[in-house]
Every structure is written in C-alpha cells, then in structure tokens.
Amino acid sequence: MDTSALYLKKHHDQRLRGGHCWIYSNEIDIQRSPLKAFQPGDAVEIFDSSEKWLGYGYINPNTLLTARVVSRDRDHPLSRALLVHRINIALGLRQRLYPTPHYRLLFGEGDGLPGLVVDRFEDLLVVQITTVGMERMREEIIAALDKTLHPSAILLRNDTPARAMEGLERSVEVALGTVPDQVTVQEHGLYFQLSPHSGQKTGWFFDQAANRQRMHRFAPGKRVLDLFCYLGAWGIQAAAQGASEVLCVDSSASALEGVVRNAHNNGVAEQVQTLQGDAFEVLKELRGERRKFDLVLVDPPAFIKKRKDLRQGTIAYRRLNQLAMQLVERDGILISSSCSHHLEEAALLGECQQAARHTDRFAQLLERGQQGPDHPIHPAIPESAYLKSLTLRVLGRM
Predict the structure, then answer these.
(1) CATH class of segment(s) 80-183
(2) For the chain: N or C, fewer Cβ within 10 A?
(3) What is the mean pLDDT of the chain?
(4) Do the domains at 3-71 and 80-183 have one common CATH topology?
(5) Buried (b) or exposed (e) across 370-388, using 16+ Cβ within 10 A?
C-alpha cells in the first residue's frame, strides 16, 4: 500500500514513544503535512519533528482523533501479511486460555489492530470495522481471516454508531459463506442461542465471561435478580449453579424470548422467570411489592458514552445501584458492573458506597473484576480498560 509522510509537531511524539497509538489533529505539523492533502483512510508513515521514523499508520483528516499507528517495524507496513501475523498472535492467546472456540478473537488496539473487532462463534466470525483506515483494508481483512481460521462464514456487523464519527455508513453484510439466523455460543459448560444478524453489539458479551464464572459460587440456593439480562447469560448460569429462583429483567421482548429459550435448552426453565420493562421502573415496582433477593446482578449498557455525559451518567449509576441495593436481602450480594470507560473503577465504587449510605446499609467490597483476557488491555491506552465489575456484600446498619 502506498504511504504518505505525516509529521508531528515538536515535543508531540512522547506519547507515541511511550506506546500509545493515537494521534490527534493538534499534534500534527500541518505546514509539513497539510491535512487537506490526505484522503480518509490513507496509509501514512509517521515522523517526529526531526524526521525520525516512528511507525506506519492510517489517517482520517476529518476527525479529531486523526491517525492511528499500526506498526512500529519498518519492514512490516499495514498489509494482508501484517494482518495474518497479528491474527495468529491473537489466536495463540485465545487457544491457550479457552477450551472452546468462543471468544473475542481481535480487540482493536489491545491486539495491535485499531479499528477492528472480531468475535468467534466456532466456525462463524463476526467482524466490526469502526475506522475508515480499516474499512479501506476490508478485503484484506476478510482474506486474512479466511487464510488463518478457514471459517465457514464471516458476517460484517458494521452497524455500530461509532462508524458515523468516521464518516462511514452502517450496514450488516455477509462477507463469506452463509450465516444462520441463530448460532450457539458455549460458556462455562452451558449453551446459549443468539442472533448474529441482529443481536446486541456482535451478538454476545464475551467480556463478562470471567466475571460470570466468578459469580457462580454466590448462586447456590439463592434468589437472584438479573437486570439488563439480554439473553440471560448471568441469570441462567446462576440457575445452573443451583439458584432457587431467577428473575431476568430486560426492556426487549425479543431478548426475553431468548432467555426463555436458553433457560429451556439448559434445563433450568422452572427456576427462571422473565419480566419486561425499564430496569429503573421495575426496581421501583419490586420495592413496592417488598421483594427481596439474595443476589442482584446489575450489568447496564454504558450510561457515559462521551465525557460530556460524565455527570449525568454518574448520577444514573448511583440511582441504579441505590434502587438495586434496596432489594438486596441482608447479607446478600450485589454485583455491579459498568462498561463506561469514562467512569473509573474508584468512581463506580464510590457511587455504590453512596448508594449504601442512602439505603442505610453497609457494603463490603469482596472482589474486583474486569474484562476477560480475550479483551487485552493496552497499557498505554486507559480507554482500552473499560469494564469494571464489583462484587459487594450488603449488610444491615453497622
């Protein structure tokens, strides 16, 4: 792929030298590298102000986050060969850690391929491309995945809102083979059916798998409330571990139909009930009914998608955890999660503590959880460490 030179301003290369791979528009020397000279997705060679080579990347001159580094090896620019190499590296980790081929295969920056996410459902690969630079490599990506894993099908779930920020259209397309309406994912010995075409995100939330396994020991014999349940990954696993009853709550009727189906398929249909509604309103109704649960699972969508949403989103987390804590039986467990990378773990814990104080409860932090190892964190990019999961023991007044 042909490349153009991209020069940084003086003293604006330190972050890249520290391992970061993002370049913002105000870091670029526009006298030497006029942004109008680039087309979205162009491959670039990146230099510091003294013309020392820093790496290969791609650029979108129309966005604030203007360029991303993909290689720091001058012999290996962004190409099909580099894609194959990075996929093999990522695959090696997953094969070492996961007993079945159900996991996130590629996690953007964490696997050295910013703008590219791939989930694996055995022989089906679900791909999400979020940057114009990777969109320009679309055919090479498909070819590299085909060469490396020989999947029966590849589905492009390019319907994420993030694409609009890059000037890309949203779509869902079959890139290879035939994609069935329903596929099965295996997690911790259970089987869940999902729709790869229309399920949330890429169809499954692999990032919480390790946290769900950690939850197992708190479930036997307990009454469980699973909020924002989607297809029942948390609640059905609790039921399989011996929970006496599980109530799964979601606003989506189709998601709850999936819960019923998955509960039946895993032999726990008698223990699992569903309730459709907004989680905040359902919590108020359950409180009015004086319902109590021994284990409450809170796994909402991101309330803070942009930094400007931080204040209102933080309040939403506090309200949600306060309502949830009111339903936790004395000496019960609350597992509270957040996938908002703008909300730090300490802030989430602080909101849970405030919720405990407002409900006249005492909370003990038992465990901290994060995204699973198939979502590797880039040490130089705090945004790649987005998932927090706190396990709290909720007592009475102390």
Answers:
(1) alpha beta
(2) C
(3) 96
(4) no
(5) bbbbbbbbbeebeebbbbb
pLDDT, tens digit, 9 for 90 and up, residues 114-170: 999 999 999 999 999 999 999 999 999 999 999 999 999 999 999 999 999 999 999
Percent of the chain with pLDDT over 70: 100
Annotated catalytic residue, options 21, 248, 339, 352:
339
- The Cα–Cα gap between 128 and 156 comes to 6
In 3-state terms, what secondary structure has residue 267? Answer: coil
| Residue 352 among the catalytic residues | no
Q: What are the distances in angstroms from CA 237 to CA 225, 240, 336, 375, 391?
A: 12, 5, 17, 21, 16
Pick among 3.90.180.10, 3.40.50.300, 3.40.50.150, 1.10.1790.10: CATH of 205-395: 3.40.50.150
pLDDT tens track for 217-250: 999 999 999 999 999 999 999 999 999 999 999 9
CATH, range 3-71: 2.30.130.10
Return the axis-axis angle of helices 345-358 and 310-325, rounded to nearest 10°: 50
Task: Centre a 10 Å sphere on the Cβ of residue 116 and count the other Cβ atoms it contains.
Answer: 27
What residues contact residue 355 under an 8 Å CB cut-off, 6+ apart?
A: 318, 321, 322, 324, 325, 363
Query: Coil, strand or helix: which one is 224?
Result: strand
Beta bridge partners of 129: 116
Please report, for the chain, the start and end positions of each structural domain, with discontinuous segments joined by +.
3-71, 80-183, 205-395
Strand partners, 117: 107, 128
Q: In the predicted model, is pLDDT for residue 1 greater than 70?
A: no
Q: Please name the residue ranges forming H helices in 111-193.
A: 132-135, 138-149, 162-165
Contact between 69 and 112 (Cβ < 8 Å): no
What is the edge-to-edge ordering of all strands in the sheet holding 3-7? Answer: 3-7, 42-47, 53-59, 65-71, 22-24
